[in-house]
Please model this.
Amino acid sequence: MRPAAPSTFGRSPSGASGRDLRLDLFRGLALWFIFLNHIPNNVVNWITNRNFGFSDATEIFVFISGYTAAMVYGRELERSGMIVTSARILRRAWQLYVAFLLLFVIYLAEISYVVGSFSNPLYAEEMGALQFLAEPNVALVEALMLKFRPANMDVLPLYIVLLATFPAVLWALKRRPDLTLGASFLLWLAAGHWGINLPAYPDDRMWFFNPFAWQLLFTFGGWCGLGGSDRLAGLVHSRVVLALATVYLLVSLLVVVSWWWSPLEGLVPESVGEIIYPISKTDLAPLRLLHFLALAVVVVKLVPVDLPALRSIWLRPMILCGQHSLEIFCFGVFLSFAAHFVLNEVTGTLAMQFALSGIGIVLMISLSAMLSWYGRIEREIAARRHR
Model:
């Protein structure tokens, strides 16, 4: 999805096209982080935000996806009406579904080839492909219903479900935005309290990203994209709110670092730990949600929409990746498994970890640049035809 965003928090937009480049920038960064986090035993993924706070790249991706979906289809709703807009949203959801199936087939082929060629069934177990190898006919049917997903593919089914249900959410946001956000909040509370989730395959599993919980962040992004961000401008730019957000980020940093740095071991008292743990990613735990919101407040302050650096050549690669999120995410899934294979079967040295991480990001940038070039050529051809 490549929207032309209007102004954010009451300020002028970035770039000549009117696009808020921060959306593409941070979605591209999230895609890079997701790729790095999907490579096990890789020292480079220590730079990603999951190691320094309660939330990670998934929250960034889901929020921005909801924000951009609301802006794009909100304008379409005003121009073309509910039926046409709903059809366009569902068409996009169908495209995502087809992309998921294509990714599933190619990804399983990649894993199966490695398992067969190197006689190492551990790859199948590690990547969640054992069921496919044991009963491919059943696993394929379950995949068609989005119930079976190998490792690293959970984000895409979540996005498909959120987008497929978005016509009703968009209609409600346009008419009763605050009431809709409140209902979304109550559904999030119910999902966390009663464990409401969708079944997955095998039958003893549930969805890793609970759509009944994660819909809150997607809906909140849509609420912001339809004008809610402007209403929050005073709150977001408040010094008190900024101070509270900064303190919360520092506290969460200390807590997370205490998990892996022995000098801080025991920093969290046992009584407090019983209250805050586990910080569930599946159900979008309150501490994760608050961490993302605090991070957003600080980022909005540090990276204003008219920041000249947003138009610099150095940030252009990340922005390009954010503008082609579907293709880059799918490509990143393939690359992460290939990097994992090389680190296991060839060499896992520190130099190789840095090299594979860098090569993977360069390839993602190259693909996004090629897609941008091709899209520009198609637009030029279409413009000449209409002259």
About this structure: The chain has a mean pLDDT of 89.
